[in-house]
Amino acid sequence: MSSAHFSLIVIGGGPSGFAAAMRALDFKKSVLLVEKTGLGGTEVFNGVMTSKTLWEYSKKVKQVRDLMPGYEVKFEDSDKEVREAVRARRNIINNHLRILLEESTQHLFHLEKGRAELLGRNEVRVQKDNGDLLNFTADYILICTGSRPRYLPQIPIDEKIILTSDGIRHMRDFQKSLVILGAGVIGCEFATIFSNFGNSKVFLIDKADRILPFEDEDVAAMVSESLEKNGAVVHRGSSLVRMEIVDGRVEYELEYKDGRHEVNIVDQALVSVGRVANVENLGLEKAGVRLTDRGGIWRDDTQTNVPNIYAAGDVATDISLVNVGESEARHAVERMFGEPGHRMNYENISTIMFLDPEVAAVGMNEQEAVRKGIPVKVVKLDYSLLSRAIAMHKTKGFFKILVTNDHAMRILGMRAVGAHASSAIEGVAYLIHTQQGIRELANMIHPHPSIIEGIQEALRMLLGNSIYKPEVLKDRLQCYVIENGVKTAVDTVF
Q1: Which of 243, 273, 303 is the last residue of a domain?
Q2: Measured between alpha carbons, how far is 326 from 313 in angstroms, rounded to an integer?
Q3: pLDDT bucket at 494, cuts 50 / 70 / 90
């Protein structure tokens, strides 16, 4: 197949690349997918499947620990859970492609394992593991090479004692103590996981005054309170001076805002300070592909400065989410071979934060509205009012919904914090996507008892016809308007 020509060559077999290749087949186009390591990318091997399986298992362990104080989970059990999940997900992808390659009568899809390099705007060279070089040409090229954890040059990361998220999968035991550098979503997720297991004393280095700086203060406060209740220690307002491996352990020094210094020694460290795009050794300069100031591939609506070369996923965006990468990749293929009819929209992306409690988000939050000077109405309802939450003994949480400060009350954003948060957000996400108001969702008959009844009651509050009255249950129901950065509490917002 050397020197063959394709309609599309996709470089990178992670979620974005896989989605792109499958979408190209819908257009009956010939496609070559090139992957140098394992199909599935970070989603399968060092990211989603590992961390989220650990999170799910750690929740179960915490429930047992709450009932049986002193219970300790074996590392082998958690490791088995992860390996089985990774194997199951990998098998789905591999079996799908195997059947496609073996049984498809159209023979449009082709797969090559190796390292891809651009030789020009339409030509790609693939170096196989045995050293063989294969050249291919294509009408279009899509780059989906993903990203990797950011390394800090002053920290001796060895993926054994000082790890990134890539090293989690290679752990062989729980350590008695663990420090996590980075209090964003990923850092807080791992702090939640390891504090849930209870085998490790967890420390979290937070340069800001609170964790999750991009989320509203009430969201961060509830997660922080839960972490600390679970035994974690949050080093608030601290900057890392140094982190070193000393006698097989981790010694780290912090400087606080008041000038105080503190030195601690733990068994292991996890560095979670963002990700960097995989753009090295791709031959981008040979094709004339531009990079951004932050090191990713520049593009406009997935198209690079070279008209027939596109980029999707982590290699070209600051939003490192599987659903975003897949959507971008599909959109890129639709631009090549069809008529998408719209540009990519990043305004209202649904996300899940695997914390304790679980957090789901879509659209704008309160601090973003203030920063942008957008007048909003806000309603907040506590989980303790929900029959389902009471039955589950999971009353820690709340819904917070932002709408436009006008009669239309178009939904701008929502935060769901608590049990079933990820399942509760979809209806509101749809309303935001379609730029609808709140009346349709408020007037539906929701299932009972369910968590999503809380959304209905919150919307009813905005309409002034709620069952629970905010002027009566002021500690559990809140309605207020934010305009020009000023919050004004009201009994009813309608």
Answers
A1: 273
A2: 7
A3: very low
